[in-house]
Write a structure and sequence with these properties.
Elements (H helix, E strand, L loop, with lengths): L3 H7 L12 E2 L2 H11 L5 E5 L5 H9 L2 E6 L2 H10 L6 E5 L7 H7 L5 E6 L5 H9 L5 E9 H8 L9 H9 E9 L4 E2 L6 E8 L8 H8 L7 H5 L8 H7 L13 H14 L4
Parallel strand pairs: 2-3, 2-5, 3-4, 5-6
Antiparallel strand pairs: 1-8, 6-9, 7-9
Helix pairs in contact: 2-3, 8-12, 11-12
Length: about 270
Amino acid sequence: MIDSKKVIKEAGLDPNKALGQNFLIDESALSGICELACPGGQNVLEIGPGIGALTDRLAESAKLVLAVEIDGNMVELLSKTLAAHNNVRIVHSDFLRMKNSAILDGFGGAAFTVAANLPYYITSEAAMKLIDSDLPINRMVLMMQKEAAEHFIAAPRAKCYTPVSVISQRYYTVSQCMKLSPASYYPEPAVDSAVLLFERNGCAYDRDFSRVVKTAFSMRRKTLRNNLSKIVPKDTVPAILEGALLSPSARAEELSPEDFSRLAECVKRLSSAE
Ligand code: SAM
């Protein structure tokens, strides 16, 4: 087991706040994430391995762990803390700038799972880069700030029901499986955290779906009729809404992910949107 606090102190380093370096030191949370993401033999993508406390556990049961870390100091430490594993590949890179094709190549085109204690400052962007993609991901176990987690699991009409909720729930069954207090980290963050489990639900990826969802939410208080006319000819909107069995006065926040699936299908079929 890797003691993150001890390793970073012995290396004479300070956790980098700007990079969201709050290391998970809660043993049961580390094992819980590992069991969910990698029950045995999976390819695992880890975003932000840090000192390698989670990576070390994942490597015990994974086929291959591809760990993407932005901080050169951490990459240097990882070469020591993970030296015992020959199934870990450390990639020194900004995950947000990494091409999805490079991730896929890392696993030789095979399916993979994702495990991450996400840095707070990139949570939504990093998660959506994976969710709104055609990457062959089976499941993801993502730790994030509690307030960010609420967006991924929100139901229609909730205050935090946003495009993030709809797009995630179209492709994944999302559930919260852990809650963590600041005491689970070194150094302690000022916020509570949650771990979400994303299980792929079999719905095929549609690259046009998120454009329809984001447009429908673009002006939250406006009706679908108003918002949709930004991406389809205005005169096609009534037929699109009727085809999707939706009221012209409906607002995006009232629609379920299934409603949005019908809407996106009708936008494709009934409009000449480019
Ligand atoms: N996985 C470790 C753990 O659980 O203790 C560290 C988690 S810490 C919250 C987030 C890690 O992500 C840090 O090591 C940080 O340097 C790294 N990181 C921050 N931004 C990143 C980015 N854009 N791409 C890749 N890694 C990043």
